[in-house]
Amino acid sequence: MMHLILADSELERIPAEIKNHSCVKKNRSFILDASLHHSSMKKIKDWQRRGRPDIVHLFLLISQESILNKEGMLRTYVHTRNNEVIYTNPETRIIKNYNRFKGLIEQLFEIKKILYEENVLMEMKEEKLEELLSKLKGKRILFTIKGNKKRIEDVIEEDVVCIIGGFPFGDFITNVYDMADEKICIYDRMLPAWIVAMEAIVAYENKFIADKL
Ligand SMILES: C[S@@+](CC[C@H](N)C(=O)[O-])C[C@H]1O[C@@H](n2cnc3c(N)ncnc32)[C@H](O)[C@@H]1O
Question: What is the DSSP string of 157-187?
Fold first, then answer.
């Protein structure tokens, strides 16, 4: 099984300090989105990296639609800057439309669970990254440009936990470097989180399930 974690994701509700700004009020969104709230965000700490639900959307689209997930060998988790974790049912198909996806995330922040008939499609829990990690079995691989240059196929094991940063710039907020068994860099230049997720998924498929397909 591959567990794929998007860690320290820049997904949050609009912070109280900017709730009454005109551009925030005009857009009537509950989720901070840099593409809409850019002009108000300069008032908040770390504003350059915050408000990126698009990273979460692309990460979930790629992972949930992957062959690995369809084969039942993938679990995805979105850990946020405020220590929430979103658990996504492997059966969940992610809404392709970005605005509707944000609507779903707003609902998650409000009512914590998205249900379809009796099934929980997505659930949000207050949880630190280390709490999530303590529940998962497998070698922990942190993807970071600061890691040793390695091929993913050479380091993954059948039970593996891959950790990828869910932010556009800067470094992890959580002290994730101490939580990993191995830190790897897969390319000399910075890649978007969803591309790193895709590379990890495909490496796992090629190494462990290609013969069975
Ligand atoms: C856009 S990057 C975030 C930028 C940030 N400066 C950093 O180094 O973590 C998003 C995430 O993708 C992963 N990543 C990006 N490029 C990588 C690379 N060349 N090798 C390994 N992981 C990479 C890392 O997990 C990173 O946190």
Answer: -SSEEEEEE-SSSS--SS-GGGG-SEEEE-S
